[in-house]
Amino acid sequence: MAEEILTQEKPEKKKRIFSAIQPSGTITLGNYVGALRNWVKLQDDYECIFAVADLHAITVRQDPKVFRQNILNAYALFLACGIDTEKSIFFIQSHVHTHAELAWLLNCYTQFGELSRMTQFKDKSAKHADNVNAGLFTYPSLMAADILLYQADLVPIGADQKQHLELTRNIAERFNGIYGKTFTIPDGYIPKVGARVMSLQDPTKKMSKSDENNNAWVALLDKPETIMKKFKRAITDSEARVCIGEGKDGINNLIGIMSAVTGKTADEITAEFEGKGYGDFKTAVGEAVIEEVRPIQERFDRLIKDKAYLEEQYRKSAEIAEKISQRTLDKAMKKIGYLAR
Ligand code: TYM
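Above: inputs. Below: predicted complex with tryptophanyl-5'AMP.
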């Protein structure tokens, strides 16, 4: 009993979370359902640190003017989704110098063979065959640096980032094994529903903005009529029964999206659409997504006009992020044997 009171009086230290998203021009429903939406929910129960991963973004060629705008748009959009700088630290990766520095150090503790096995590297180098740069190859060490700098306990991500997180754990364990405990070993935090939102045109593939077919993905900032059009065109099957099943990738995906945005279970959705056709179901999913993104789009439209406010938020967060991450960088450098600055 006394023990119980003691633990009640001394609340446990909150666990720390780190995650980031690249500022591609199109933040998709996949990014939202697989990652962003969960970040927002985690803010009350964890100490959260989030970033716009703009250093990662130059592994593919960027037009400077468009890139600059995309970074700001991503920052505003994530705030519009509910990231709250009163509760969380939310900064732009390139504003905190420690990321690139630790990434270099970690590169020297990451094996060529490990990086060669990354499926995302294989996919992206096939897609951008004219620009298979070293950054594309070593990108997972930068991601490891992002996470390890903050001694994060948990990393909320979609299923496609699991392999990179496992590599992060391996790098951290290797470093700790050589020098003694330096980095916290992070766990992944992959949502039960929506960890892999699939393409609306080929539901065996992940929804990705780099898909050449624009109907394959839904962007958070797509107009309502565009969202509806894309859902109406979504590929399904010939069974015409709204339920989870084998060979029903399209419907499984739509049920997953519906479940993620409404909070209903797959069984509840199946019961609701018993006897109804796919046309009705696709329209309902489109409507549910439109309702989910409507307030986000309204907030985005307001925020993106207020550059001074955005600047104040990302500067304030970058300052704190730099202080936290500098401690880890100093510790790692000292262990390796560098002279103190
Ligand atoms: P990125 O920018 O490709 O994606 C950001 C987040 O969105 C998730 N996601 C999806 N989830 C479900 N279904 C989909 N179709 C889908 N598409 C994307 C991703 O899993 C991810 O969680 N390297 C990372 C960014 C990053 C990062 C980090 C993440 C940089 N540093 C440190 C975590 C921790 C990336 O390119 O994600």
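The CA atoms of residues 91 and 315 lie 7 Å apart.
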